Amino acid sequence: MIYSRRQIWQVGKILLLLLFLCITINPAGCATFIEAGDTNNPDGVVVLIVDGLGNGYINPELDVKAIDGSILKKPVLSNLPKIYNQAAIFDSVYVPKLKGNSGHNVIMTGNRDADDTMVGYDNASIYDVVKKHGYLTVGVLERGDSEEVVAENDLVLHDTTNSINEPVMQISTSENKDIDHPLPLLTTEFETHASRALSRVENTPSGTIQRYYTYNKLALDAAMDSINILEKEGRDRKYFITVNIAALDTAGLYRGYEGYSQCIENLDSLIVPLYETCQENNLALVITSDHGMAFPDAESRGGAKSEKYASANEVRNVPLIILSPNIKQQRIQETIGQEDVAPILLSTLGIADRPAFCEGKEKNLKEYAVLKVVSPGITSMKLSSSGKEVCSGSNDSMYYITGLEKNKQYTLETVIDSSGETYKDTLSIENDRVIEIKEKDENQDSTTSPENNMHLVGGILIGVINLTGLTMIFRIMRN
Fold first, then answer.
1. From the centroid of its chain, how far is CA 439?
2. Which of 204, 360, 397, 421 could form a disulfide with 28 if both were Cys (CB 3.0 to 4.6 A apart)?
């Protein structure tokens, strides 16, 4: 069949119109981002979870004791103290409970009672939050690899046996079809690491402390290679890498305090390349743990979760070290909970959103704050301070304002375009905040998210436009 020029031109106009409408219609998922000041946010983050690492064993300001009350000789460290001198250091981060993967789940959700199931709920984890902000999520996990945690990540390399003697590394890839590059390259790299894992372990003498060192190095090497690929091939998006190393926990359980201390000293060396790579690529580095480890005395094996050990300070107090380009060196002596790690981490990334079940309290370590304004419809917004406009925006229902000075009074004014309803409030901003504007309708369902409503409306509208356009094209072709 031969089409006339007029028919081809009509089809072309319709296609251009559809493209224009799909681009310009705002379903409220695309927020307006406004920089009100300097931020220097990191371009990504590596979260290193060291299973079984108690805070006192590496924090130079703390002592560690055995259960019998004797003072334990601390590991000799040369590199971690240098990191301490550049990072935000927390002296007291307390684990709420010790059961299964509880420590990992609390870190990822900000909820004290989190279990594996909660991690898998919609918008319940920090993975859900960062992915909404365009992050790629990658995991290299020797432990903490529950089915839910694996499913939350775009790509995971994890040990299905949790064995330092017979590791079986498996790769799990997200079903999200929107993600392509650079996942194939990362997958290929992870396949190489998985195929070599067992032989690398077996090349170290069985029953020696070196095998524990090698097991930790498996995960750290894979993490380093993934960073290198992402920096070369995937620099158009930020990324969130979770690394879990488990040999220290096993060493404490089976090799006593001597083996535990030796593993920490080895980690002090292994962490240097990761630290340097993060510095070179403007990445944040966060070091923490699921729980610590206690020992009856310097000659005995340790434990954590049984009644004999669970209440010990060496078990309940875990490290939290945050090294990021937007945070100055500081020591935080106040006590926080492990559930506070999630909001603190997200704040460091300049993200004001929090997981759905987050109970943790944020401590803003940045020199600035973030304000998120959400409205049920297209809204005009103005933020001012001392009578001077700081920033303004229009034709959107969601605004992210970064770089705001802390401890300063601001006035927020908004007008909803469709109804003309106004909102005005005076804000004092210390931590990152989310302001949700609601219409003055008593019948409005307060449990319904304006963001989700606008997504639905926008999606339906785009679908109707596409269907109409296709119908017109079909008619032209038939004629």
1. 32
2. 397
- Report whether 458 contacts 29 (CB < 8 A): yes
Give the C-alpha separation, 341 to 346, whole Å.
Answer: 9
* pLDDT confidence of residue 102: 86
Q: What is the CATH number of the domain that holds 329?
A: 3.40.720.10
Whole-number Cα distances in Å, 334 to 89, 289, 318, 331 = 11, 18, 14, 9
- Whether 55 and 12 map to the same domain: the answer is no
What's the pLDDT at 237? 85
More confident position, 433 or 474: 433
| Same domain for 82 and 223 | yes
CB proximity list for 479: less than 8 A, separation 6 or greater: 7
Is residue 407 in some structural domain?
no
Q: Which domain holds residue 294?
A: 44-348
In angstroms, rounded to a whole number, what is the distance separating the alpha carbons of residues 358 and 398? 21
**Token representation of residue 320:** 């939290």
- If you average pLDDT over each of 229-233, 391-395, 458-462, which comes out highest? 391-395
Number of structural domains in the chain: 2
What would the pLDDT profile of 425-438 be if each residue is shown by its tens digit? 999 999 999 999 98
* 3 state DSSP class of 387: coil
Q: Classify residue 317 by its DSSP letter.
A: B
